[in-house]
């Protein structure tokens, strides 16, 4: 039996997370090239810890990103801190399989998740945080309609240099205008 196809695009689909993928996630999260843009870069991740984390994450709106062409898990995306009263949330994503970088999978996964958030979770504002040295991600987010709303200066020390954390957001109306 294949993966559950909850939200389906042209290149990928989003599937509920499962603890069966703990080994894959722990492999990605120990690859410094993958995590250099994530807060988890300083974490110690083993398969058992990742299994516990996946169990927790799978109860919320967090999904595996799966390539349609071969049913391969390539990354993850999800909502953090959903505030149902004020209709906002924070979104996060990473593509762990480097062979799938810069091919539009992340953009499509974000579009699927944002559409779901606005249409079904009744969100009005979706925000994200990105490190200033992650220029590819910043450009991707701008193309998706995110606007920079501020930054926290020199808030992350990575690779012996201080970097800013940039805050970006998008409103439902802006998303559907595109």
Overview of this protein structure:
By secondary structure, the protein is of the alpha+beta class. It has a single domain (7-177), classed as Aminopeptidase (3-Layer(aba) Sandwich), CATH 3.40.630.30. It has six helices and eight strands, in the order ββαααβββαβαββα. The chain has an eight-stranded mixed beta sheet with strand order 1-2-3-4-5-6-8-7. α1 packs across α3 (47-57). The protein is globular, with a radius of gyration of 16 Å. It starts with 6 loop residues before the first strand and ends with a helix. The relative contact order is 0.15.
Summed up:
The chain has 178 residues and is α+β, with helices and mostly antiparallel strands. The chain has six helices and eight strands.
Would you state the CATH class? Alpha Beta
Main beta sheet: strand number and arrangement?
8 strands, mixed
Order of helices and strands: EEHHHEEEHEHEEH
CATH names the topology as Aminopeptidase
Please tell me the total number of domains: 1
Radius of gyration: 16 Å
Number of strand elements: 8
Secondary-structure class: alpha+beta
Overall residue-averaged pLDDT value? 88
Spans where pLDDT lies below 50 across 5 or more residues: none
The CATH architecture: 3-Layer(aba) Sandwich
Shape: globular
Cα distance spanning the termini: 36 Å
Number of helices: 6
């Amino acid at each position: 039996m294949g993966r559950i196809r909850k939200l389906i695009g042209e290149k990928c689909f989003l599937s509920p997370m499962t603890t069966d993928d703990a080994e894959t996630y722990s492999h990605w999260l120990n690859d410094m090239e993958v995590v250099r843009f994530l807060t988890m870069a300083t974490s110690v991740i083993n398969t058992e810890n990742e299994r516990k984390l996946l169990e927790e994450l799978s109860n919320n709106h967090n999904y595996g990103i799966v390539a349609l062409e071969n049913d391969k898990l390539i990354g993850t995306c999800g909502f953090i801190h959903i505030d149902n009263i004020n209709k906002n949330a924070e979104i996060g994503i990473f593509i762990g399989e480097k062979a799938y970088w810069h091919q539009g999978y992340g953009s499509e996964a974000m579009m699927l998740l944002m559409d779901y958030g606005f249409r079904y979770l009744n969100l009005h504002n979706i925000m994200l945080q990105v490190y200033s040295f992650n220029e590819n991600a910043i450009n991707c987010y701008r193309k998706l309609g995110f606007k920079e709303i501020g930054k926290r200066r020199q808030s992350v020390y990575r690779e012996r240099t201080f970097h800013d954390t940039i805050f970006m957001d998008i409103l439902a109306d802006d998303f559907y205008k595109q």
